[in-house]
Inverse folding.
C-alpha cells in the first residue's frame, strides 16, 4: 500500500524443513520430464468493468512461457478473509503457490509458517521496485515475495477552492495547518480526521515523520510508538481538532461523502489508492475536474511519505517451483499499464498511463506520475509487526480523540499496548525500547 525478525522464526524454519508436509501448492508437472510446471496464483484484484482482466494478463505470460503455465483464481470474499483461507488451505496441503497478501498480514503469515523465504530469488528483481515497497515484503532478513501495489500517503485538494481562498498547495504540515485555519473561517475543511482509518493512516504518517514503530532485534522486537515524529503527528491533529479546523468523520461513512459533495471538504490526506474512486461522487457535478493530487506535506525534515495499505504477491510454504513462481511474480507485477486499469498504484518503478476516468476527474492531471513520485518517497525502513491486525483498536481510541474525549496521543498509546499484547500472545519477546 513497504512497511520483521522475531522469535517464531525458528519454528517457521522447522515447518519449512519438515519432510512430512506435502508439496502440493504448484500443480501438475514436476518439471523433470519435460512437462510444463503449473503455478497456482490466488488473487483478489477487482477485475471490474473497463479493467484488463487478470486472466488476460496471465494469458500473455502463458503464451510466451509454455514450460511455466500459470492458473489464476480470483478470491471473491472480503479482503480480510483471504488470510484465513490461505491458512486453512495451506495447512490442509491444498494452498496455492502464489497469493496476494496485504502488507500488514505478511509478518503474521510468516510467523505461522505459511510463507517461504525467497530472498535469493527476490533479490534478482528488487531493483524493479521502490525500496519502500520492497521492504514491506521483508520479515527481518527474510523476503517472502514481491510487492504489487502501494498506498503512499498523498494530499488531495480542490484546486478551484484553493484559488478562491488565495492559498497555495501546502508542502509542510505547518503550511497545511495555516490553510486549515483560513478554510475554517469560510466554513470549509482543508483536511479530515478519519477515525476508522487510524490504524494504517496514522502509522503511515508516523513513518512519514521518520519513526519506525517496530524494529526487529535478534529474536525480539522493539516497539516504540511514541517517538519524536509520532509526537509531531499527534500535535498536528490535536491542534486542528481543538480549534475545530478539521472535518471529523469516518472515511467510509456518509458524512465524509456529504462533505465532499457539498464542497465543505476541500482537502484530504489519503492513500494513493483512493484516487481510483475518491472523486466518483463528483462526476457530473460542477466540481468535476476541480481536484488535484500532490505529495504529502512534509512532517519535519524527512521529505518522506508512509504506507497506508497495499499488497504483494507472496510465495506460499508448499510451492515447489520457487524460481519459476518468482519469475512470473516479477513479470506480472511489472505489467504496470494493465495493473493500473485494476485501480492499483503499482509498486514497480515506472509510471503507468493514467486511466481516462482518473484524468477526467483530476482535471487532466497525470495522476500516476504524481503517485510514482510518492512511491519513490516511501519510507524504506517502516515495517509491520506480527499481530498488526490487532492495532485496529487504534480506531476506537481515534473516535474518542475525534470527539474530544481523550487526547490524540492516546491513539499511539493504544498502538503500543495492543502490539505488545499481540506479540506476547504469539510468544514473541518484546525488547526494552
Amino acid at each position: 500500500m513497504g512497511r520483521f525478525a522475531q522469535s517464531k522464526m525458528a519454528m517457521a524454519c522447522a515447518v519449512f524443513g519438515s519432510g512430512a508436509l506435502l508439496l502440493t501448492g504448484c500443480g501438475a508437472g514436476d518439471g523433470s520430464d519435460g512437462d510444463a510446471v503449473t503455478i497456482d496464483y490466488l488473487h483478489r484484484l477487482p477485475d471490474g468493468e473497463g479493467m484488463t482482466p487478470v486472466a488476460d494478463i496471465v494469458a500473455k505470460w502463458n503464451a510466451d512461457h509454455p514450460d511455466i503455465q500459470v492458473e489464476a483464481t480470483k478470491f471473491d470474499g472480503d479482503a480480510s478473509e483471504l488470510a484465513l483461507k490461505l491458512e486453512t488451505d495451506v495447512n490442509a496441503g491444498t494452498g496455492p503457490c502464489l497469493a496476494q497478501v496485504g502488507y500488514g498480514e505478511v509478518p503474521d503469515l510468516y510467523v505461522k509458517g505459511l510463507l517461504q523465504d525467497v530472498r535469493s530469488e527476490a533479490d534478482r528483481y528488487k531493483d524493479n521496485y521502490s525500496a519502500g515497497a520492497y521492504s514491506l515484503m521483508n520479515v527481518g532478513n527474510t523476503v517472502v515475495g514481491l510487492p504489487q501495489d502501494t498506498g503512499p500517503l498523498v494530499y488531495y485538494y480542490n484546486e478551484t477552492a484553493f484559488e478562491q481562498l488565495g492559498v497555495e498547495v501546502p508542502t509542510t504540515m505547518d503550511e497545511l495547518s495555516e490553510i486549515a485555519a483560513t478554510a475554517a473561517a469560510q466554513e470549509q475543511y482543508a483536511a479530515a480526521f478519519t477515525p476508522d482509518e487510524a490504524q494504517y493512516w496514522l502509522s503511515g504518517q508516523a513513518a512519514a515523520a521518520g519513526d519506525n514503530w517496530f524494529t526487529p532485534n535478534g529474536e525480539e522486537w522493539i516497539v516504540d510508538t511514541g517517538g519524536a515524529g509520532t509526537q509531531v503527528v499527534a500535535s498536528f491533529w490535536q491542534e486542528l481538532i481543538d480549534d475545530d479546523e478539521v472535518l471529523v468523520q469516518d472515511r467510509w461513512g456518509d458524512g465524509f461523502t456529504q462533505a465532499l459533495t457539498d464542497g465543505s471538504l476541500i482537502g484530504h490526506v489519503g492513500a494513493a489508492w483512493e484516487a481510483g474512486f475518491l472523486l466518483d461522487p463528483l462526476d457530473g457535478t460542477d466540481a468535476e475536474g476541480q481536484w488535484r493530487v500532490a505529495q504529502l506535506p512534509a512532517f519535519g525534515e524527512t521529505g518522506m511519505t508512509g504506507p497506508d495499505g497495499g499488497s504483494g504477491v507472496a510465495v506460499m510454504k508448499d510451492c515447489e517451483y520457487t524460481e519459476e513462481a518468482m519469475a512470473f511474480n516479477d513479470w506480472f507485477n511489472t505489467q504496470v499499464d494493465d495493473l493500473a486499469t485494476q485501480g492499483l498504484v503499482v509498486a514497480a518503478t515506472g509510471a503507468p498511463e493514467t486511466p481516462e476516468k482518473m484524468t477526467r476527474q483530476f482535471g487532466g492531471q497525470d495522476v500516476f506520475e504524481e503517485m510514482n513520485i510518492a512511491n519513490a518517497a516511501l519510507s524504506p525502513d517502516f515495517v509491520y509487526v506480527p499481530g498488526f491486525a490487532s492495532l485496529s483498536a487504534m480506531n476506537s481510541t481515534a473516535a474518542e480523540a475525534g470527539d474530544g474525549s481523550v487526547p490524540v496521543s492516546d491513539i499511539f498509546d493504544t498502538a503500543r499496548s495492543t502490539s505488545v499484547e499481540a506479540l506476547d500472545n504469539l510468544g514473541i519477546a518484546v525488547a526494552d525500547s
Residues 409-425 form the longest helix (17 residues). The chain has 17 helices and 14 strands.
